[in-house]
Amino acid sequence: MAIKRHGVAVLALAMALAACGGGQPQQQAPQGPPTVGYVVVREQAVTLTSELPGRTTAYETSEVRPQVNGLVLQRLFVEGDMVRKGQPLYRIDPAPYEAQVASARAALARARAAIASSAALARRYNELVKINAIARQDLENAQTSAQQARADVAAQQAAVRTAQIDLARTTIRAPITGRIGRSAFTTGALVSAAQTAPLATIQRLDPIYVDIQQSSADLLKLRQQIMSGQLTRDGNARVSLKLEDGSAYGPQGTLRFADVTVDPTTGSQVIRALFPNPNGLLLPGMFVRASLAEGTDQNAILVPQRAVSRDEKGQATTMVIGADGKVQPRMLQTNRTVGDNWLVTGGIKPGDKVIVEGGMMLRPGMAVQGKPWNPNAPAAGAPQGGAGAPAAQAK
What we know:
With 395 residues, this protein is α+β, with helices and mostly antiparallel strands. Helix content is 26%, strand content 36%.
């Protein structure tokens, strides 16, 4: 019993000593200024692009229409196939037009026979008038008849040619090379040269146009920037496409022209680009998004989006390392994004060290230790306050 009481006393003494020792604060090593990652701002040449909506339009479109009246005897193509210029598409009953050709040729033969007799009479009258056997008026009448006969021959030759043209038009041929759509008329249908509905439509799809809608205000601003020298532009602007499913269309296109008229209802202008379409992937009427190269800013300043935050007024702000090694806030002027960066037009200058990493708990005037930021290295700390959140995309 005594042994147990002795053990309890020893345990209580040990606990008391531990409690007394734990009450003394431990000495902590002093910490230096926090380490942050920064990038040095510099001017560089940047190509500015805009992503705009657009729709595809056929390079050439031709509505196949009859030029003579008659019954359709044959359809000579498969709907949806490629057809070549001059390829027969429909055959209209040629019998009435063959008869017209035969009638015109007969009239021509009659006119040629008449010219022979009138010419002979004019020659005889010419000899008789020399000996005063007939009046000169009779000679003049004979000569006039001969000239009218020659004119009749020319008119009948033209009539034969017209009848032959109408006969040839009974075979309706493709006016252009392209892909033909569905046929609106079948065999046995009565068609006429005056009808409004086309028989079929042919569209040339390689190359193909893309009509892009851009605000006239944006175009005006772009022209002013080019005229002032802020942007430079080559004469062969390239355009790339994204399809309806978000995939990229391989071949690039070239900018052709901007429409000279502004749509008063939308305030936009049409910009037309030309794209190769060898596989027929692009079809007329498809919705696409076009990336249009506007020009090159030779003195652009880019700041990573993660280094920029927004204050309570929505103003873009960032932190920089001053010459004294202390944090300084800066108000930025930005107008658009370029990839993962903001294009900055004011608030910083070349040579400034913008804090990109490790600035979450920083305050203005705090001393920091900076190191160049490596975007491929694992993050050593959270990004600057608010800067880690996705920045608003400038359009």
